[in-house]
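Milestone M4 deliverable, item 7.
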Amino acid sequence: MPDKTLRVALFSGNYNYITDGAAISLNHLVAHLERQGIETLVFSPTADPPAFEPAGTLVSVPSISLPSRSEYRVALGLPRAQRQRLKAFRPTLIHLSAPDLLGYAARGLARKWDVPLVASFHTRYDTYFRYYHMAWLESAVTRYLRHFYRPCEHVYVPSESTAQVLRAQHMARDVRIWSRGVDDTRFNPGKRDLEWRRGLGFSDSEPIVAFVGRLVLEKGIDSFARTIAGLRERGVAQRVLVVGDGPERARFRDLLPADAVFTGHLAGDDLARAYASSELFLNPSVTETFGIVTLESMAAGLPSVCADATGSQSLVAHGESGFLVRPEDDEGYVEAVERLIGDPALRARMGAAAHERSRRYTWDSVIDALIEQYREVLDKRRPSAEGGASEALLRQGVLADDAALT
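Output delivered:
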């Protein structure tokens, strides 16, 4: 039976036209909501062909390619046709997942219609400018984000380390945790495949250092490449496996040894096999709010070497399941990776600990916890025991008045 009290309108900057951690999380959320009988409507830019089929009902909004990053699209707000679709849906909760023009338009309608508003914080956009020689913009972007999230009843972040940063920045009134999950039937050490390794030109004894993610500057590809160069200078034998694609692929290839293997984008069982067939995972990104790729590598039984930054701080137990390194400490990354390569027993012990820690994270449990937080918002805002926010709006005549949509 459909849940009449909770109808969620979700607004996303990228729901399925690029595969990234935020898109994966939002699709898991929508699929789970619908299994629970909770109606959901998603508004997002789209592209043809999409990266994957979306969960739930997706309403495309007009968008343009982002200058210099054409793989990303920027929504041009929420035109009348899409607003009419939202009106007919009668949401009792609006969930924003990106601080873009689409999110800003939905934010305005939620405030006008008095529909409860929540948001999820997926990416530390303010840190991106460090990688494009525009660090001077960081404080201005932080101020904008603070303005954007201020009206939200809850702002959900995937890790306590990110929550601490946002609270210190006074980013929102109420910062909550919506963690992330991993499918341990797919990502596990049993997916290790020596034949697959051999097919890519790796010998059975070569330690593979894996990178998984979008090939963009903000994922720390420069730090990764400097780490590999440092290992070569020390004479540490290893090979590099890069899983993913993006606009910096050619540059990344030029920075890495000629024998580095680039697989392009992998998903599903192919991705699980790539993790499990490696020896360790290196993730120097500081822009993550959680780091799904780190969690997937842990589930596959890999020790991780990660930036001591938001996201990874909440996943990696330093000295137990991997190592956390101060961002930009190239020597620290080299030493941590060298230690794991040179000590197979340590690598095995940390990999087992990482796998065990990953078992705490299941999609069903983390999304059920989010639904409870949704209901907390509704309980606080519901005008009567019988009616939800949209019923109050109908009494006020707001949703029935087309003028309110202009």
